[in-house]
Amino acid sequence: NSKKYHSFESLHICRLFFLYIWVRYNAHFMEKILVVEDDKISRRIIREILSRSGYEVFEAEDGAQGLEAFKANKPDLVLTDYQMPVMNGYEAAKAIRQSTHPQANTIPILAMTANAFTQDIQNSLESGMNGHIAKPISIEAISKAVHAVMTDAFF
């Protein structure tokens, strides 16, 4: 079991390293990214990748904290998990869109989740999210999503 865990962890680290290289290679169109993720390890890895690529990263552990971080800061992108305590990703996206914040209707919000069924994707769009990235996050999926955000393809 320990061997399988280390193998999975190594694969996860390799994927994140390649994600880091891709983000680092591409031009910096966004400066601030809000990461809303309840899993501390995932949040830390995403933060490291993005911050080493020159982005300012704000973090939140749940949707309620994410909403407050969105209001207090001016992120260029929100990456959020679906399933979180206190307020889930759907609720957070709806709350962001309904807020009086100047970016409420324009901020790109991307879901990061293992729920990749058609209904889950539809629910994310109905909640005000712009896109959906299935976990485990692949380099190709994140590349397409970030490129779409950078080129305003969501709008």
Spell out the key features of this protein:
five-stranded parallel beta sheet, alpha/beta, 6 helices, 50% helix, 155 residues, 5 strands
Outline the structure in words.
It is a single chain. With 155 residues, the chain is of the alpha/beta class. It has helices spanning 2-25, 40-52, 63-72, 89-98, 118-126, 139-150; strands at 32-36, 56-60, 77-81, 109-113, 131-134. It has a 5-stranded parallel beta sheet with strand order 2-1-3-4-5, with helices on both faces. The longest helix has 24 residues, at 2-25. The chain is globular and about 40 Å long. The termini are far apart.
- Taking pLDDT < 50 over at least 5 consecutive residues as the criterion, the unreliable ranges are none
The main sheet orders its strands as 2-1-3-4-5
Major beta sheet, specifics? 5 strands, parallel
* Helix coverage percent: 40-55%
C-alpha-based Rg, rounded: 15 Å
Give the ordered list of helices and strands: HEHEHEHEHEH
**Helix-strand makeup class:** alpha/beta
Beta-strand percentage range: 15-25%
Q: Globular, elongated, flat, extended or rod-shaped: what is the shape?
A: globular
User: What distance separates the N and C termini?
Assistant: 46 Å
Count of DSSP strands: 5
Task: Please state the average pLDDT score.
Answer: 79
Count of discrete alpha- or pi-helical segments spanning 4 or more residues: 6
